[in-house]
Write a structure and sequence with these properties.
The protein has 207 residues and is an all-alpha fold. The protein is built from 10 helices and no strands. This is ATP-binding cassette, sub-family A, member 4.
Length: 207
């Protein structure tokens, strides 16, 4: 009978639309319990009678989260390392196309005799190849900057930490500095730009 008397009041409170949302940082083991307990105390103390001192009432919580086992830590480490390795392979795959694209115009100029016309007009071979290299390295730098910007945007700590970011930038730029000059002699092996692009892109994957 006593339960039946309390039932109407209980059902009445079920219709309430007052909600509370607790935000917490899931990086901390005790964050969820701590912030939820703060919310509970914030609800409890205003509900006390006026003659009660809110400072004397509160809810105390003890949290003892389980630490990760060695097996769980090993799985997380392997997963993180695997993801970083896949990202590195994707970057290598993407950047291999950039230096190979620089031979398209070189082959076309050679086949169409445009390069020969420039030499006849007085352009020295040193000037021709040096200007090509400077233009290509500037275009490559734009691609490398985009790669670094994407890593920073997605907060890939393996690549953007203060210790690793300078090494990443240096590695990308030195790769372009080393590979682009290698593309110039290889361009003489082809007469069709598209064939050269595909072949040299595949070769760059293994450099």
């Amino acid at each position: 009978r006593e339960a039946s008397k309390e039932m109407p009041a209980f059902l009445k409170h079920l219709e309430t639309e007052d909600n509370i949302k607790v935000w917490f940082n899931n990086k901390g083991w005790h964050a969820l319990v701590s912030f939820l307990n703060v919310a509970h105390n914030a609800i409890l103390r205003p509900s006390l009678h006026k003659d009660k001192n809110p400072e004397e009432y509160g809810i105390t919580v003890i949290s003892q989260p389980l630490n990760l086992t060695k097996e769980q830590l090993s799985e997380i480490t392997v997963l993180t390392t695997s993801v970083d390795a896949v990202v590195a392979i994707c970057v290598i795959f993407a950047m291999s196309f950039v230096p190979a694209s620089f031979v398209l115009y070189l082959i076309q100029e050679r086949v169409n005799k445009a390069k020969h016309l420039q030499f006849v007009s007085g352009v020295s071979p040193t000037t021709y190849w040096l200007t090509n290299f400077l233009w290509d390295i500037m275009n490559y730098a734009v691609s490398a900057a985009l790669v670094v910007g994407i890593f920073i945007g997605f907060q890939k700590k393996a690549y953007t930490s203060p210790e690793n970011l300078p090494a990443l930038v240096a590695l990308l730029m030195l790769y372009g500095w080393a590979v682009i000059p290698m593309m110039y002699p290889a361009s003489f092996l082809f007469d069709i730009p598209s064939t050269a692009y595909v072949a040299l892109s595949c070769a760059n994957l293994f450099i």
